[in-house]
Amino acid sequence: MKAESEESNLKRDLGFFPALSTVMGLVIGGGVFFKISSVTAATGSASLTIIVWLLAGFITINAGLTIAELAAALPVSGGIFKYIEYIYGKVPAFLLAWDQSVIYYPAAIAALSIVFANQVINLLNLTAAYRIPIAIILTVFLFAVNLLGAKVGGSIQSVAFIAKLIPIVLIIAVGIFVPSDNPVSFFPVTAGSQPNFWTALGTGFVATMFAFDGWMNVGNMAGEMRNPEKDLAKSIIIGLVLITLVYVLISFVFVKELPFSIIPGNQNAASEAAIKIFGNIGGKIVTIGILISVFGSINGYTMTGTRVSYVLGKDNEIVLSKFFAKLTNKSRVPLNSGIIQTIIAIIMIFLGTFDYLTDMLVFVMWIFSVMMFVGVFILRKKEPDLKRPYRINFYPLPPIIAIIGGTYIVFSTIIRQPVLAFLGIVITLLGLPLYYIHYYHKNKSK
Question: What is the pTM of this model?
């Protein structure tokens, strides 16, 4: 495989502003509204809550810049899957695709469906017994909608992107200036009721990372940019800085408008803050906007997730390749891949909660992220003459910072949530026998 083998096949017509909107659209999802409950539970104070959002943004910016060099040097379709394959070979790349298929996308769909159900229950004053049925109905419905074709799924994404910006802008723009009975003090930075400051800082930092999910794909447009040397890094830096600013400001509004004691563990905090700011009717309208935003996020994971196992099947890289490569007759979208993804997501809805599922997907994906950060050093040494349209500024600081941040997330999860980490690792390693069994039969049939 040559690093530039697909570069000439990509149409380079993407400028800076489309790249910037892509970065922001990929990252901003349901986490902006709902991770505040777990972040505040971990930090124990408003001051430390703001600090961990800033820390997470700093780590993510450095991670994004690191991936940008890989993306510009390897402008091939497939994104992070292809980066891992190019640097480490087919087996780690398969395990990444396997994890994306059985953990990452189903867990994201399940987690956000649970959040959606909670918001519907809160909005309509239903009992908790409706949570799982609503989440399952939504999951199946969006799978069915995506069977109508990529154009339908893409239209939903366009509407949802606008919808997600409306409640964010309203909550920040109005919430900052609305008087509040809850004084917020940012100095000194303390862990509040938490017994250990550094534990609270680390746990809060890990809790924020689902809200930044999507940053790993920010370099995927490198091969389609007119001027990646100039625009790629700029779109990533500005995009992730703006995203961090959005997260900091909206978190500030939440802790300003609501008594801090009611936010930890409260997945309705965003809706309650909206009602506090805009009144009962206005708050419910904003809550509907939040629901549409989450709906769009689930649709995005549903639409893109099915393509991973489909590509494995199409390329004959997985057991039952023909099964996973099957498309619908009319709309030509992955059918069986979508069915399996939906079944796994439904199982996860029964088994997990929002935070547990998001922690699992963050843990697994950061293992491969650290591998990519290290891969920048490997490629710099093994292929110094590789064409790099974008080279990391202040190298080697950004990849070192990204490696430190990613390694912390991985080991912190192993220490704090050993069962979750063990489960994630076991599921990952289950891909190995499937890989080797498939290749044994594949080679035997030649």
Answer: 0.82
Distances (CA, A) of 289 to 123, 235, 252, 324, 370: 12, 27, 20, 35, 35
What is d(CA 234, CA 106) in angstroms, rounded to the nearest whole number? 32
User: Is the pLDDT at 67 greater than 90, yes or no?
Assistant: no
Alpha-carbon distance of 257 to 183, in angstroms, equals: 9
Residue 54 reports pLDDT greater than 70: yes
Protein fold of 11-444: Amino acid/polyamine transporter I (1.20.1740)
User: CA 180 → CA 45, 177, 282, distances in Å?
Assistant: 17, 9, 17
Which of 182-191, 210-219, 416-425 holds the top average pLDDT? 416-425
**Crossing angle of the two packed helices 90-99 and 418-429, in degrees rounded to 10:** 120
Spatial separation of the C-alpha atoms in residues 95 and 98, rounded to whole Å: 5
Report the distance separating Cα 71 and Cα 6, nearest Å.
12
Distance from C-alpha of 409 to C-alpha of 420, rounded to nearest angstrom: 13
Residue 224 has pLDDT above 70, yes or no: no
Interatomic CA distance for residues 339 and 351, integer angstroms: 19
